[in-house]
Amino acid sequence: QVQLVESGGGLVQAGGSLRLSCTASGRTFRSFAWGWFRQTPGKEREFVADINWNGNITSYTDSVKGRFTISRDNGKNTVFLQMNGLKPEDTAVYYCNTEVVLQRAYGPWGRGTQVTVSS
After folding, report:
1. Integer CA distances (angstroms), 36 to 64, 81, 108, 118, in order
2. Phi first, then psi: what are they for 85, rounded to 5°?
3. If pLDDT is split at 50, 70 and 90, which confidence band does 27 have?
4. Could you give the residue ranges of the DSSP H alpha helices within 75-115?
5. Cα–Cα distance between 79 and 20 in angstroms, integer?
6. Residue of 27 and 17 predicted with greater confidence
7. DSSP state at residue 55
8. What's the farthest any 2 CA atoms get from each other in the chain?
9. Distance between CA 26 and CA 81 in Å, rounded?
10. In the Cβ-directed half-sphere of 32, how many Cα atoms lie within 13 Å?
11. How far apart, in Å, are the Cα atoms of 67 and each of 18, 70, 84?
């Protein structure tokens, strides 16, 4: 079973940037996209972005388009999320997943990384 470790979160002022990383160990499958999701207290986890195995197909939720960029390094089993122009509404715990289909996650979760954006 895959194990995921997310990192790179922190406290940043509105307009700032952060780069999240997620490294996977164990068995992963090329047929699945890898993705980022986020969750705030009392709300369901929501899709943020995903990327296919080759890295040439990405998709984003509308609220982050033009600000966030997902990428991956298959040699290091790592997926990244570059977040620019952060807004207070981006505050959440961010999770990655390595079994994403049609923007829904089917694999195990890591512990996530907290992103807090102050106004």
Report:
1. 12, 8, 13, 21
2. 55, 45
3. confident
4. none
5. 8
6. 17
7. S
8. 40
9. 21
10. 16
11. 11, 10, 5
Tell me the backbone φ, ψ of residue 30, rounded to 5 degrees: -70, -20
Residues 105-109 have a mean pLDDT of 95
Handedness of CA 103, 109, 113, 114 (dihedral sign): positive
Q: What does the block give as tokens for 35? A: 């993705």
| CA atoms of 11 and 98, how far apart (whole Å) | 26
- Beta strands 104-105 and 78-83 are unpaired
Closest Cα partner for 24 from 101, 99, 103?
A: 99
Distances (CA, A) of 14 to 21, 70, 86, 107: 20, 20, 5, 32
What does the CA dihedral 24, 29, 31, 35 come to, rounded to 10 degrees? -20
Mean pLDDT score across all residues of the chain: 96
Query: Phi first, then psi: what are they for 13, rounded to 5°?
Result: -80, 155
Q: Which residue has the tokens 């960029």?
A: 69
Express each pLDDT in 56-71 by its tens digit.
999 999 999 999 999 9
